[in-house]
């Protein structure tokens, strides 16, 4: 039967794909017969648009000429000829067409009454509904998008933006035969894998078909990679392209971390044994000592385009122009016009021969802000091109920013949030909780974190393992994991105080790059972790407050991790603890 069915299958066509479901993996009974806006246009769309564009500008030109002649001849403007009446009618007709986004929306509204079941939300409703969803998300049964549903815990998928409501229409699911035809077309190269979401309109089905096509193409199984239980709509166009599943990373909780008088339970996504346990011990020591203090010293994301001139003199002239305080106000107005939250702070330039690197620094609200600062920089570059027509823009990023690379400019000038966090640990806590003594910790920090790092030629790496904690918190809260490179720049300072009895420890981190809106922070799992910390979404009171608080929590977690690991090394417990917690007892050969 299966062979017979296969022999009667026809190749998949684009027209078939257009009839496939728009949302949710179903096809409505009315989809195949539903008229579209282009059905009302007798000519091909591109010809129709060309005709209306030509008519619009032609009649505008004609009417302006006639208006000028009447003014010159003192003819009353309200006296019009038949040709002028015709031109006015054509003008309004073409104007209405263009106003309706080339006429499609206008024509469709005339021939197809909008159904109450096909209402599409406008931008204001989308924003309002999204805010309501974020406020109510705490009450969902399962906050993690990657958790498989059970009878006791059902996942409530985040509300899709611009969702077409078809709740009252009967649905007909696509048959496995149709899916099989699409898989074959992908394998044969007839349908690009990247186009499945737009062709099918169903992100989950697209991922399943792409996954099956990949297995057939490579001959490798993906059985261990989960597919079900994830909201693929949430990542479309913002987090990941061409998905075939998702990777599961366990999330542990360290804490409570007592910092600035507030307790935080810190989520850490990691596969390294001992990391959460060690950070948790550091939190315990800080808590028993009365807590830590964390301070934001600077807040500003950077982007540094590179431009080239014919001579080094011209490059220097632009440098002087940009760094002149008299020009800053006009430049900042151009920059700030691109965003509600992006505010230019300063521009620092560096010349290399005929090339000029301009490092723009601005605040970005609760967003990490790379896109925001890039838009502002583009506005300024467009202006500079008019003032300096011989300027050649080589790239909007010239690595003087510097993003996702260890760089001295970030270590010295800072990027993102510059944070310092400190705590004083009494001698009793050092002995009972950390199982070591103050003198050993001071000596180890000097020889390991300071001298040892200098011998290695470290750049921003004067610490024990700051990147461990930064990476774990970043993954859990939806940050860009690659920015762990500069965000982990940290110098750990340890010294004896109060007559050598107590321990003062601090971490100084000049470039923590975090945000609480945008990117991966909008996914359900990561949003739940941000909510646990009390920093989900944008701050309603003070723009940027949530992102700054998250940066201080990252620094406080690093402080706890540094304190615990240094104590383990000083006490000679590092190898023993890793043998206990970081080695599996399973016989993987079975």
TrEMBL record:
SUPFAM superfamilies: NAD-binding domain of HMG-CoA reductase, Substrate-binding domain of HMG-CoA reductase
Short name of one Pfam family: HMG-CoA_red
One GO cellular component, as annotated: peroxisomal membrane
Residue segments, region Disordered: 1-32
Compartment(s) where it occurs, according to its Swiss-Prot or TrEMBL record: Endoplasmic reticulum membrane
Sorted UniProt keywords: Endoplasmic reticulum, Glycoprotein, Isoprene biosynthesis, Membrane, NADP, Oxidoreductase, Transmembrane, Transmembrane helix
Top EC class of this enzyme: oxidoreductase
Catalyzed reactions: (R)-mevalonate + 2 NADP(+) + CoA = (3S)-3-hydroxy-3-methylglutaryl-CoA + 2 NADPH + 2 H(+)
Pathway listed: Metabolic intermediate biosynthesis; (R)-mevalonate biosynthesis; (R)-mevalonate from acetyl-CoA: step 3/3
Membrane topology category: Multi-pass membrane protein
InterPro entries: HMG_CoA_Rdtase (IPR002202), HMG_CoA_Rdtase_cat_sf (IPR023074), HMG_CoA_Rdtase_CS (IPR023076), HMG_CoA_Rdtase_eu_arc (IPR004554), HMG_CoA_Rdtase_N (IPR023282), HMG_CoA_Rdtase_NAD(P)-bd_sf (IPR009023), HMG_CoA_Rdtase_sub-bd_dom_sf (IPR009029)
Gene3D superfamilies per the UniProt record, alphabetical: 3-hydroxy-3-methylglutaryl-coenzyme A Reductase, Chain A, domain 2, HMGR, N-terminal domain, Hydroxymethylglutaryl-CoA reductase, class I/II, NAD/NADP-binding domain
Assigned EC number: 1.1.1.34
Family of this protein: Belongs to the HMG-CoA reductase family.
Protein name listed in UniProt: 3-hydroxy-3-methylglutaryl coenzyme A reductase
Gene: HGMR1
